Amino acid sequence: MLGTCDLVDHFPLLIAAMHRHLQSLTLASGMAGGKDDKPARLDLLWKDFFRAPSKWWDERSSKRRPGEPDFKHKETNEPLWMEKRKNPPWVRDELIRRGYPVGQLIETADAFPASFIWTCCKTRDLQRGTRLHHEIQERGLDEKMYSDALITMYAKCGVLEKAQTLLDVHSSSSVIAWTALIAGYAQQGEGENALTCFERMQHDGISPNGVTYVSVLKACTLMKALDKGKQLHDEVLSQGLLEHNIELGNTLVDMYAKCDALPQAHAVLKDLSTRDVISWTALIAGYTQKGQGQQALECFEQMQLEGIPPNARTYTYILKMCAEIGAFDKGKEIHAEISRQRILNRRILAGALVEMYVKCGALSEGQSALEKLSLRNVASWNALIEGYVKMGQEKQALECFELMQSKNILPDVATYVCILQACGVVRAIDKGKQIHNEISRQGLLEHNKELGGALADMYAMCDARPKHKVF
């Protein structure tokens, strides 16, 4: 039994457990109710879904039949269908506002459900999606009924010309179809087409939703279209779309940061009702890339004060910042944090860590860190070898090169250019000739003038003539 002190200590936990239990009972109570309870129960369930979508499983991608639910509560297993006729009238509008593809379960007596095509969207299965499209045409079914799903499928699979044609042919007035096409253009790096599509959509009187704005803001980011981004920001604010849409807020921060408008990016982040690691990392990346290391560090510390744990991308930018400003102690502190979290074997993170030690002049510590990694890519070894050469430690560079090869890590052109420089400085002609043979066997000299120049320089520094042709 728990004593009085134990009960006092555990009281907050008991209250929280009781609250969760009551909430589960409330959600589940409709299961035993009669027909009159269904509308009220559905209203309650949908409100819970929109308030906390993370408490619900999204079953849409695994559906095999229309009768299977779209969402299922993680604790009570209560089901929800987006197309249920008895849904409260407000649910459809809210689903559309949040960018859910309402209308995906349209059926006719002769047709298969459009949910099959939506599954292809989720899995980006172009082959199956195209086959389903052909089946619709062969059966003489009304293609327009499936146009949202087809346009989205082609757009997500990168077949943008086909998606655009379908949208034009059917004169779609669906925000889902237009948003899918805009997102497709943005993802393929076609920012100008995305913006043109967005302007056509608005001209046709179709109101964008939060998902649309996320996609078109990404297009602005690609094109560095700051003025257009500001205009979109004003539209988003006037429609109140930022209030509960963290993805939209994060996209705005990223847009301003990548357009070099860091004060605006910081202001947007401060005004967000909810901030997460993505929003903070976008701002930290912006400051780091502009060489504003102190501001990046302040953001990192504020993020941690707010209890938001950094991810591998955050640490990568902070390590780059430490490398640029020579913040060796902070870099070592970050190394310790990363080691505790056991995420060091991410390729980009490992490279940033080695680069930090190299740029801070701590080459032996950089090599020690590199040798402990189970994931060792050539870029990390190149950074270390280049560091030794720049510091005038050519013998250590050669030893590092030998160690790298002993671990079956294949050198690339950058490795060879650097190590040939080391051979020239210490007049290691035998090693230089050996590397020349390796390069020739791999056929690397045929289209690489930089490598040919490095070889010629090595022979000149060693007062030797090449046995094989250099150029």
* Terminus-to-terminus distance: 85 Å
Radius of gyration: 29 Å
Percent of residues in helical segments? 55-70%
Number of helices: 24
The assigned structural class equals mainly alpha
Number of strands: 3
Indicate the proportion of strand residues. Answer: under 5%
Q: What is the mean predicted local confidence, pLDDT?
A: 85
| Principal-axes shape call | elongated
The H/E string reads HHEEEHHHHHHHHHHHHHHHHHHHHHH
How can the largest sheet be summarized?
Answer: 3 strands, antiparallel
Walk across the major sheet and give the strand order: 1-2-3
Low-confidence stretches: 1-37, 104-111
Describe what you observe in this structure.
The protein is built from 24 helices and three strands. With 471 residues, the chain is mainly α. Among the domains are: 129 residues, no CATH class; 86 residues. The protein has a three-stranded antiparallel β-sheet with strand order 1-2-3, with helices on one face. A hairpin with a 5-residue loop joins β2 and β3. α6 runs antiparallel to α7, α8 packs antiparallel against α9 and α10 packs antiparallel against α11. The chain starts with a helix and ends in a 10-residue tail after the last helix. The N terminus is likely disordered. This is Pentatricopeptide repeat-containing protein.
